[in-house]
Fold FAD-binding oxidoreductase.
Amino acid sequence: MTASQSSAPPTADLLARLAALLGPSGILTDSSDVAPYCTDWRALYHGRAAAVLRPAGTAELAQAVALCAEAGVAMVPQGGNTSMVGGATPDESGRDIVVCLSRMNRVRRIDPLDHTMEIEAGVTLKAAQDAARDAGLMLPLSISSEGSAQIGGVLATNAGGNNTVRYGNARELVLGLEVVLPDGSVFNGLRRLRKDNTGYALRQLFVGSEGTLGFITSAILQLQPQPRAVEAALCAVADASAALALFAAFRDQDPALIQAFEYMSGAGMDLVTRLVPGASLPLAEAAPAYVLVELATPRRNADLRAVLEDVLAGMFEAGTVSDAVIAESEGQRLALWKLREEHAEAQRRAGASVKNDVSVPVSRVPELIDRASTACAALIPGIRPAPFGHIGDGNIHFNLVQPEGMDPAEFLAQDHRIMDTVAAIVRELDGSFSAEHGVGRLKPYMMPGWRGGAELATMRRIKNAIDPRGLMNPATLFPPAG
Ligand code: 2HG
Ligand code: ZN
C-alpha cells in the first residue's frame, strides 16, 4: 500500500472548487498538461496526479490547501522538479495533487544594509543569485541545477552544493520563513533578525523537511558581500589523498579564501568531455583525478592570484599536483565550472546510474572512495565508479554508471544492493547515507536502519503533530509505519 492510499481521491466537486478559487491559469487537469509534473529528472519515478495547482500567492495557496485538507486529499509540493531522489514526484495512486509555486516568483526586497533578501518560493536559484549580484551582493548558494531549482525546493531540501565549505548549507542562510501549514493556516516567520531567541526555531523545522510539513512560500535569506576578486584553477592530482593535501595547503594559507573545493575522478571527467557538447579538458593529459578550486574575497587589493600561484607552486614541488590551469578570464572560469557541473548530465547520457549522495568526515574521503570502488567492482563486474563532489565538506557523489552494454533496467534492479554496499562502508566511516539530496522516495527504506529508535520516532511525532492526516508529500522521507 502506498502512503497516498490512506488519503482520499480528489472528487469532481473539489476540483471544481479549486478551479473557481485559482482561475484558469492556476490549475491544470488535462492529462497531457499534468504529465510533465509526474516524472522526476532522472526518470526513476512515473507517478500520476489528479491536478496541478499553480497558485498566484500565499492567500490563494492557503485557501487551496484548506480545501484539500478538508477533503483529505494528499498534496505534493514541486519546485523546479530537479530532485535526485524523486522527492517531488507524486506516487502511482493518482490521488495526489501536485502544487507548484512557480507563479510566486518575485524577489520582493533586497536590503543593502541588512544584507538580506526577501524572496518568493518560485524564484529560481539562478534568478535569486542574479538579483543579489545586481544589488552588489551575493547569495552564497550554488548547485548544478540552479537554473531550474526554485527557492522553495532549495530550502525544503536544505540544499548544499559547491559553497558549503565556506558558507554552510541552505539552512545557514535562512533568517525568516513563511509557510502554509497542512491545514491551510499560515506561519508567518518572515523576520530578518540575527538574534531571535523566542523558543523553538520553527523555521529550521521546515528547512530540510522535504515538503512533509507544509509549503515554504517565501523566505528572508542572509546575503554576503560581492567578492571583488575570484580565482579558479583546475588541478590534476593522483587521487583523493592528494586532493586533501592540496585542500590543507590552501586552508593553511587562509581558510576564509576557499569558496569551493571540488573533486572529480578521471572516469567522471572522461564522461563529461566525451558526452557533453562543448566540454573539453584544458590540460595536456588526462589525470586519475582533478580538483576545481575557487578562491574569492570581498577585500580590496587582495592579491588572490599570488596566493593561488604560491600554493600551486609548493604543491608542484611536493609532487601533489602534476598539472594545473588557472582561469585567465570569466569565460575560462565558467568553462572550468562546466566540467564540474555537467557531471550529472554526462552520467545520465552514459546510461543508467546509481547515485550515492553520501558524506563522511573530510579526512575519510580517500578511504571511502577506495573501499567503495573495490566493493562495487566485486559486486557487479564492469561497473563504472565515477565519484565526484564537494570534497571540501566531505560530501561525495559516489555514483556508479552501468557496465557498457548492460540492460539499464537490469542494472537499476540492483540499486539497493549497490546502495547498501556503499552505505555499509559509509557507516563504518561515521558518515551519512544522504548528504545533500535528501531522502525523497528513493531512500525512506534506509531510515529505520540509520535514524531508527528515538530519532525516527521523534520525527514521526513531529510529523503527526503538524500533519496529523499525513497529507503532505506522503511517499517521501518516512518509510511506511509498521
Ligand atoms: C552535483 O553536485 C549535484 O552536481 C548532482 O549534487 C550530483 O548527480 C549527482 O549525483
Ligand atoms: Zn552535489
Observations:
- The mean pLDDT is 97.
- The longest strand covers residues 229-237.
- The first helix runs from residue 12 to 22.
